[in-house]
Task: inverse folding
């Protein structure tokens, strides 16, 4: 009897403890500092925690910042070694299309990733494409008690494979408005969330993470001069490092 493969988003068997890291956007120096503050031993092509903790990245590793290749080299090494997992962000989505030669607008920082990757070897660019293309939009972890998705995800889509899940996890739902800083306003799905799982996400930069119905946004706008933030899970302890400078003007 043939046994069906598990769903690609199913990591319920991974129970942590975890360090969930917000949108990096090419900020390699800040990522190294944050990992070290979290207790990781960092090398150029990987990092591990002496206590066996696992890093979880909520997507948008790439674009806008000063060194997307170095961020990818570090995170890809961690994922390969089993010391990290990452979901796909909307910026990885566009980078994959660009690296496949599809017609996408090289804007919102994609132009910087492409310029930086142009200085790398064809073999490394192939590794980047394969890695980013392998990322799934969300993971269910810790026996179903934890979900990570780049833009968040309502409970009815947890563990589901569908086009709607993918759209929500990568992009959320925009209102068509911009906030005072020029960022798109997203539909506040967390205000109505009543799920049992903790949902951790990024995508929309905020100044200070605030728990809303068991959900938390961890994008504190490092690339825009804010901070790079992680949440220790299950401890619920926030750890952040300041940006060295404003790397990208919105």
Result:
């Amino acid at each position: 009897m043939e046994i069906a493969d598990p769903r690609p988003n199913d990591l319920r068997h991974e129970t942590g403890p975890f360090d969930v890291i917000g949108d990096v956007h090419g900020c390699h120096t800040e990522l190294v500092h944050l990992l070290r503050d979290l207790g990781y031993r960092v090398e150029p092509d990987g990092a591990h925690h002496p206590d066996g903790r696992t890093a979880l990245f909520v997507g948008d590793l790439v674009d806008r910042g000063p060194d997307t290749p170095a961020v990818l080299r570090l995170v890809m090494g961690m994922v390969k070694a089993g010391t990290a997992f990452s979901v796909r962000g909307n910026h990885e989505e566009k980078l994959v299309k660009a690296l496949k030669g599809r017609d996408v607008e090289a804007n919102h920082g994609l132009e910087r990733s492409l310029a930086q990757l142009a200085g790398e070897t064809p073999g490394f660019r192939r590794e980047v494409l394969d890695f980013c293309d392998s990322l799934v939009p969300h993971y269910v972890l810790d026996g179903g008690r934890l979900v990570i998705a780049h833009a968040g995800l309502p409970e009815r889509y947890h563990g589901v494979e569908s086009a709607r899940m993918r759209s929500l996890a990568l992009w959320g739902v925009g209102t068509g408005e911009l906030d005072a800083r020029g960022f798109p306003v997203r539909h506040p799905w967390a205000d109505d969330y009543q799920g049992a799982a903790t949902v951790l996400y990024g995508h929309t930069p905020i100044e200070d993470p605030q728990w809303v119905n068991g959900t938390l946004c961890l994008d504190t706008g490092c690339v825009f001069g804010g901070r790079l933030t992680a949440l220790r899970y299950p401890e619920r302890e926030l750890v952040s490092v300041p940006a060295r400078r404003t790397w990208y003007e919105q």
